[in-house]
Fold this sequence. Notes:
Blueprint lengths: L1 H31 L7 H14 L2 H10 L7 H14 L13 H24 L1
Helix pairs in contact: 2-5, 3-4
Amino acid sequence: xxxxxxLTTASLxxxxxxxxxxxxxxxxxxxxxxxxxxxxxxxxxxxxHMDIYDNAEFYDVANDYxxxxxxxxxxxxxxxxxxxxxxxxxIYQNLSDEQLWHARLSFKKYLEAQANSNVIAATN
Length: 124
């Protein structure tokens, strides 16, 4: 009887400890999954991919993600998956340390230029 109480107590303590550990990992995972804006090199790699593969679906999705003026890491991950499925790999180009706002502005201008060329091509 004494052994049974000892084993039951040890089992309950183990279950409590395991449950607490799993909960702590779950909370930590939620805290570290915050999405942050991508780097300037990632913006450049998206533009490079659009120039090389000229995939309309990739362009539309990237344009939708940029509707709020930036692309975050979760959206970039989705773009990587789409690029692999539809055309080719999304190559991460490691460039010099340009300022992020400059890369974001360049990407906005690039999307506008692509939209204009698509309109011109559609009217011809």
